[in-house]
Design a protein that fits this description.
The protein is α/β, with parallel strands linked by helices. It is built from 15 helices and 22 strands. The strands form four sheets. Strands 3-2-1-4-5-6 form a six-stranded parallel beta sheet, with helices on both faces. Strands 14-13-12-15-16-17 form a six-stranded parallel beta sheet, with helices on both faces. Strands 7-8-11-9-10 form a five-stranded antiparallel beta sheet. The longest helix has 14 residues. The two termini are 18 Å apart.
Length: 447
């Protein structure tokens, strides 16, 4: 697939490296030579140093024959304009990064498609949604609802008190049990488990279940005593923080700590209709945290632009008794370290953007693709086409690649967990988990 990416900033560089590993034909455009040099020599792609908004530049990059054009510069207007031009030149699909909440409204999707912009990504808003999902359930690292909760994916750090340790999975989550363990992160290793694998203390386990059995999963992992989040402290007053605060449930009280005095004034104006208290100070300052009631706070969210600062702040909050911590970590090199330090929920906007864009690369009908940052795995929701390979045999007979497993499906609005004897039908929406497997290899089973 030929893909042209405009903008060698953080998101564009990450996408270029990620997609080049899948042997896609990537061209990365930027007018700054230094940014292009920073991508390194390990990525198999072409670079073009030229003005991004130039029609000649886009022609030279070959957008006329591109299946996908991605504009992810910090300039929203430049992204939208170049997508329109790329579409007019012949690009099949276009994606623009935006920073205007108004543009992200679902009813405007058709309007932008008419202009030549196939899809919009607003990473800050998507990140805020992940943060809110994590705060609603203090005992999980990740929650992802599929088809309005017909299926639910839960990422849970296993601690003392669970009743499912050191037992073969075939004995504790068989075909008749209301959950499946679809992936395990153990230290630096990711496991797509089989029936003989066991759960260990301090594993990060990913459970597929249905909404009505969430309390049951909470019981067997020993998290019933975790207090629900009512008081939230957020460090860093950027766009992601604003989006999260505007989406917070009404029963949660929030304090936002911001170091920059002028930004505090801006936040007070932006959030004047929201129930948020803005505090000028450093979120790593233990004396300040004590003064602002850290000991009666159930959740601490670190959203500063600096990954190291966010890690340190979460460690400080945990030391002071906060059980639920969330850190925005944009440096992918720090993700594994943060997990080893037991930071809590990790938010990475680049991975969120990549998940959205990867979905557009697939030819089959795909409702969702998500990159599980901490497990270094992908989860995708495929719809089974009539007469596709996946509908011809039972699951255990399909010969799926090693590192891939099917977790559950939605049929006529009902969530169903998948076992080896499950027969998938045309129209089923199936959740697929992949580790070190190109999703496009799995796609062939569904089309």
């Amino acid at each position: 697939m030929k893909i042209v990416i405009a903008g060698a900033f953080a998101t564009g560089t990450y996408l270029a490296k990620l997609l080049s590993r899948n042997h896609e034909n990537i061209t990365l455009i930027d007018e700054d030579a230094e940014r292009l040099e920073n991508i390194g020599t390990d990525a198999d792609l072409l670079t073009l140093q030229a003005p991004i908004g130039s029609i000649n530049t886009l022609k030279e990059a070959g957008v006329g024959s591109a299946e996908l054009f991605i504009a992810v510069t910090p300039d929203q207007n430049l992204n939208l304009n170049t997508c329109m031009i790329a579409k007019a030149l012949g690009a099949k699909k276009t994606v623009a990064r935006i920073d205007n909440d108004e543009f992200a409204e679902p009813e405007l999707q058709e309007f932008f498609e008419g202009l030549g912009v196939s899809s919009l990504i607003y990473p800050e808003k998507l990140a805020a949604a992940d943060i809110i999902n994590g705060l609603k359930m203090s005992w999980v690292r990740l929650r992802w609802d599929v088809h309005q909760g017909a299926l639910v994916l839960l990422g849970i750090k296993l601690r003392e008190g669970g009743e499912i340790f050191n037992k073969p999975l075939k004995d504790i989550c068989g075909p008749d049990d209301p959950y499946h363990v679809v992936a395990i992160k153990r230290g630096y290793e990711t496991i797509i488990p089989g029936g003989n694998d066991e759960l260990k203390l301090y594993d990060l386990a990913y459970f597929m279940t249905t909404k009505q059995y969430i309390p049951y999963v909470r019981k067997i992992v020993g998290k019933e005593h975790y207090a629900d989040v009512k008081n939230v402290m957020i460090m860093g007053g950027g766009t992601t923080a604003i989006q999260a605060i505007k989406s917070l449930p009404s029963y949660m009280d929030v304090k936002i700590i911001e170091r920059d005095d002028s930004r505090c004034e801006e936040l007070n104006n932006i959030l004047e209709n929201d129930d948020a208290l803005v505090i000028h100070g450093d979120g790593r300052n233990m004396e300040l945290l004590n003064e602002e009631g850290i000991k009666t706070t159930q959740a601490f969210v670190a959203l500063s632009p600096n990954s190291e600062t966010n890690i340190l702040a979460c460690l400080t909050a945990k030391r002071m008794g906060v059980r639920k911590t969330v850190a925005m970590i944009e440096n992918m090199d720090y993700v594994s370290m943060a997990e080893s330090l037991d930071i809590g929920t990790i938010i990475n906007k680049k991975a969120i953007a990549a998940s959205h864009i990867y979905q557009m690369m697939l030819d089959s009908e795909v409702s969702n693709v998500r990159f599980l940052t901490m497990a270094n795995a992908d989860v995708a929701e495929f719809v089974a086409h009539a007469n596709s390979k996946v509908t011809q045999k039972k699951v255990y007979e399909l010969g799926l690649p090693s590192g891939a497993t099917l977790g559950g499906l939605v049929r006529n609005g009902e969530g169903i967990l998948i076992s080896g004897g499950t027969q998938i039908q045309a129209g089923d929406s199936v959740m697929v988990f992949c580790h070190n497997v190109n999703i496009k290899k799995i796609e062939k089973f569904f089309i």
